[in-house]
């Protein structure tokens, strides 16, 4: 198979028919979740529904249980009570076979990237391919891995490098390439822009939005990054008091009279992020008008990012 054909095959999502009883509009549903570590209650009667095709931002103070919630949804944390349905499967009671099947339908980027340090980037991407599709020939698997590396915005040379040879931003992209290895329907991202410089973080935001648009992903994104929330999230879920206290667009959240929400979004950083988004929109609009004028006069378009 040629590289182009392999890339096209890798780009075509697996035909994942909705299962009987699967709510195709809400790929993730959490109801009445309770998680404890000893006496420490993390979640109590927490409920959350994620819409298909959205980027859902998940925010909350440190230690409110954002990562534990994500781990519960992907079956790494067994809750004390509650039901979690992912793509029609009850995660809390999934049998082994179902469990394996469902894990191939999501990709996860953990906070630290969680790459195998003794494997190259391409070999890291191949790990889930080998696990779920051992029948794929070596050549094709290598080609799919190279395509995922490119898709994540890394230069092709990065495929042969070890994680220790990459910058923090490149490691995140390598982790993303691995998360995308199986053409997932759901993408879980735990603080993807943490530790990146502002330009790297903005570029990563753009990449997530672009991937979500082109691949139709549903994205569950834990972040403390207000710019990310403003720039790419369709809705934001707020964790506090052991529950999701609100889930809505940022303009609607701003109308709520909850002290944490007000302080978070209306504090100095929240206002700065909002102002940055307003400036970005105005610049994009101005550039769009400039493009239209230039096109009318047969001029070249200006280059560079819009914002
Ligand atoms: N395996 C564990 N054993 C005991 N306590 C844990 C474990 N995992 C998480 N916790 C506790 O659960 C609480 C929630 O942790 P979690 O990592 O989900 O918070 P978070 O909201 O993601 O925080 P941050 O924003 O700082 O990353 C914390 O108090 C943490 O110490």
TrEMBL record:
Keywords: ATP-binding, Nucleotide-binding, Transport. GO terms for molecular function: ATP binding; ATP hydrolysis activity. Residues 28-266 form the ABC transporter domain. CDD domains: ABC_Org_Solvent_Resistant. Residues 278-307 have a biased composition (Basic and acidic residues). Pfam families: ABC_tran (PF00005). Residues 1-27, 272-307 are annotated as: Disordered. PANTHER family: PROTEIN TRIGALACTOSYLDIACYLGLYCEROL 3, CHLOROPLASTIC. This is Phospholipid/cholesterol/gamma-HCH transport system ATP-binding protein.
């Amino acid at each position: 198979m040629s590289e182009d054909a392999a890339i096209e095959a890798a780009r075509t999502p697996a035909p994942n028919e909705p299962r009987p009883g699967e709510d195709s509009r809400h790929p993730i549903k959490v109801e009445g979740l309770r998680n404890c570590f000893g006496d420490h209650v993390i979640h109590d009667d927490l409920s959350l529904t994620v819409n298909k095709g959205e980027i859902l931002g998940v925010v909350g103070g440190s230690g409110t249980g954002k990562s534990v919630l994500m781990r519960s949804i992907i079956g790494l944390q067994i809750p004390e009570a509650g039901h979690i349905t992912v793509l029609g499967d009850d995660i809390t009671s999934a049998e082994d076979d179902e469990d394996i099947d469902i894990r191939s339908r999501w990709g996860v980027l953990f906070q630290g990237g969680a790459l195998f340090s003794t494997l190259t980037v391409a070999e890291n991407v191949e790990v889930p391919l080998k696990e779920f599709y051992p029948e794929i020939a070596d050549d094709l698997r290598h080609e799919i891995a190279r395509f995922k590396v490119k898709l994540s915005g890394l230069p092709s040379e990065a495929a042969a490098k070890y994680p220790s040879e990459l910058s923090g931003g490149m490691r995140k992209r390598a982790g993303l390439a691995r998360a995308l290895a199986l053409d997932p329907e759901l993408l879980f991202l735990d603080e993807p822009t943490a530790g990146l410089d502002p330009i790297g973080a903005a570029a990563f935001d753009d990449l997530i939005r672009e991937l979500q648009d082109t691949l139709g992903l549903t994205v569950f994104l834990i972040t403390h990054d207000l710019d990310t929330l403003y720039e790419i999230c369709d809705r934001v879920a707020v964790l506090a008091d052991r529950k999701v206290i609100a889930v809505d667009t940022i303009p609607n959240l701003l109308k709520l009279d909850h002290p944490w929400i007000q302080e978070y979004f209306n504090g100095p950083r929240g206002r700065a992020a909002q102002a940055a988004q307003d400036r970005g929109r105005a610049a994009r609009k101005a550039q769009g008008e400039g493009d239209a004028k230039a096109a009318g006069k047969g001029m070249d378009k200006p280059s560079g990012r819009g914002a």
